[in-house]
Amino acid sequence: MVIAVTVAVPCGLGVAFYLSEYARPRTRRILKPLLEILAGIPTVVFGFFALHVVNPEIVQRLWPIGEVGTFSALAAGLMVGVMILPTMASLSEDAFSAVPRSLRDGSFALGATRRLTCTKVVLPAAMSGVVAASVLALSRAIGETTIVLLAAGSNPQLTLNPGEGVQTMASFIGFAGIGDQPTGSTGYKTIFAVGALLFLITFVLNAISMRVVRRHREVYE
After folding, report:
1. pTM for this structure?
2. Which residues of 199-218 are buried (b: 16+ CB within 10 A; e: fewer)?
3. Residue spans per domain, the chain
């Protein structure tokens, strides 16, 4: 999740800034629908791409410490970040486009460059929308199953080495579901326990984001 957000948030904001502030109207009309189409790619495609392309060759170049095996948390995190990037970029671009033009014109009139206007005027004014987009992308990253199931493996261990395989809560549910669990057994109940914990974490994150959005929300007329 941390790796995915590290990839998706900066890159998504960069794409959103380009579409909102730098791209020509014709370019925006072409790229924005394509960006939204990318959000509909099945996650199994990302998973197989991470398994056969990203890992281990690309992961070994990005993380040269130790030997990278068939599965790694870094490969899964990178592909989950790529998966949620269109969502982050599209929603952030909508938030930037909602900022009144008068704020930009006032910034330019004071001598600010386009870069300063983006970072000091547009971004703070659209912060509530950016926070909502980030939390939505984060929630989707937490609950992603197929990519991490294929790319991260099923090795249940606590490690800070992203070059090793790990098992997330979502992939645990997927792997536990592959083997038949007798009804009422400990394994059967554990699947529901992990699912309930995953739901609780997502619920808490969304509740926090709603409070942040309400606090930083700007209303323009």
Report:
1. 0.81
2. eeebeeeeeebeebbeeeee
3. 2-216
Averaged over successive runs of 10 residues, the pLDDT of the chain (221 residues) comes to 87 89 86 82 84 78 73 85 88 86 87 87 85 83 81 77 80 69 77 87 81 65 51
Torsion sign across C-alpha atoms 120, 125, 129, 131: positive
Amino acid at 167: Q
DSSP state of 164: S
Tell me the C-alpha distance between 18 and 54, whole Å.
Answer: 27
Phi-psi region of 168 (alpha: psi -120 to 50; beta: other; left: phi over 0): beta
Residue 111 CB neighbour total at 10 angstroms: 7
The CATH H-level (homologous superfamily) assignment of domain 2-216 is MetI-like (1.10.3720.10)
What does the block give as tokens for 17? 């800034």
CA 116 to chain centroid, in Å, comes to 26
Query: How far lies 194's CA from each of 121, 142, 184, 201, 208, in Å?
Result: 42, 12, 15, 11, 21
